[in-house]
Design a protein that fits this description.
It is a single chain. This protein is an all-alpha fold. It has one domain: ABC transporter involved in vitamin B12 uptake, BtuC, CATH 1.10.3470.10. The chain is globular, with a radius of gyration of 20 Å. It is a multi-pass membrane protein.
């Protein structure tokens, strides 16, 4: 069965006694892999640091030690940001695919990435912001405004908010914001030079202050995402069936969209509009535990940081000057997406 095939009714997965066992085992394995990868992120880079030195830097740092300074001041913030942003992007992708019933949806579908990018352009060109930490609140605000516009426009009409209307309005907002961004970049080379470093997506040169600023929003978004699994299972059966099961479809969809805004807005403001994480990760989780969104969302929170941290570490190792994580994720995600599309065509045939 193709990963892009329409999901079977969520009740089938709930009835399977092995789903919980598979999900629990997957959580244990993924947590172990995350610990190993996080430690590798602290060890490897332009200069490799021995595991004993990394451990000493964490538990008993020496003031003035070069290796200890690199670990604590550069690699620890980078690793933590990768963990938080990856979890946020993975969960946001799972929520988007569930709330829109669209297997190729990602956080950019609501125009969040383009809204954040436009806000960063305004910060650079209008307020002369030049640091990544300064972009955080502009990007977060831009993502939130874009989501409000999309949801408000999609709620018009007698049907209210529907997956199709969300996708269409999101595409319109993305096209409009992209056009405005292009106009500004063509007119101002200084803005182009500053913007391109944020646009490519990276974990480098981010501080813990930026992380702590958005961490409360990520925490709330992840909690809402975990609680939304049952709602997404009902929405997967269709709005009419979900209402028949006692779900308030409008309120449930609004809560899910709010969680997406918190998660995607926080992640994009931290690391830039990194593509493919929110698109690919839910499909991997679905392949492990089936169509039950209670498990898909939980596993996506672990697979997302695995993918993002792995891309960051690979980027440090394959290129002497460092390849940005956003580019590495694109190299990995694009072939996976093509394979999913090809698989869906073969099933359709």
């Amino acid at each position: 069965m193709s990963l892009l095939a329409p999901p079977r009714p969520a009740r089938e997965s709930v009835r399977r006694p092995r789903t919980a066992l598979r999900g629990s085992l997957a959580v244990v394995v993924l947590l172990a892999l995350l610990v190993l990868l996080a430690f590798a992120s602290l060890m490897w880079g332009a200069r490799d640091i021995a595991p004993a030195d990394v451990w000493a830097a964490l538990v008993s740092p020496v003031t003035g030690g070069n290796d200890h300074g690199v670990v604590r001041n550069e690699r620890v913030p980078r690793t933590l940001i990768g963990l938080v942003a990856g979890a946020a992007l993975g969960a946001a992708g799972a929520l988007m695919q569930g709330v829109t019933r669209n297997p190729i949806a990602d956080p950019g579908l609501l125009g969040l990435n383009s809204g954040a990018s436009l806000a960063v352009i305004v910060a650079i060109a209008g307020f002369h912001v030049t640091s990544v930490d300064g972009y955080v609140w502009f990007a977060f605000l831009g993502a939130g405004v874009a989501a409000l516009i999309v949801y408000g426009a999609a709620s018009m009409g007698w049907e209210g908010v529907t997956p199709v209307k969300l996708a269409l309005v999101g595409a319109a907002v993305t096209a409009t914001a992209t056009s405005l961004i292009t106009v500004v970049l063509l007119m101002d080379r200084n803005t182009l030079r500053e913007f391109r470093f944020w646009q490519v997506g990276s974990l480098a040169n981010r501080s813990l202050d930026a992380l702590t600023s958005v961490l409360p929003f990520v925490a709330v978004g992840l909690l809402v995402a975990l609680a939304a699994g049952r709602v997404l299972n009902a929405l997967a059966l269709g709005d009419d069936v979900a209402r028949g099961l006692g779900q308030d479809v409008t309120r449930g969809r609004l809560l899910v969209v709010l969680a997406v805004v918190l998660l995607c807005g926080s992640a994009v403001s931290l690391v830039g509009p990194i593509a493919f994480v929110g698109l690919v990760v839910p499909h991997v989780a679905r392949a492990v535990v089936g169509p039950d969104y209670r498990w898909i969302v939980a596993l996506s929170m672990l697979i997302g940081p695995l993918l993002l941290l792995a891309a960051d570490v690979i980027g440090r190792l394959v290129v002497a000057g460092e390849l940005e994580a956003g580019l590495v994720v694109a190299f990995v995600g694009a072939p996976v997406l093509l394979a999913l599309v090809r698989g869906s065509r073969s099933v359709a045939a």
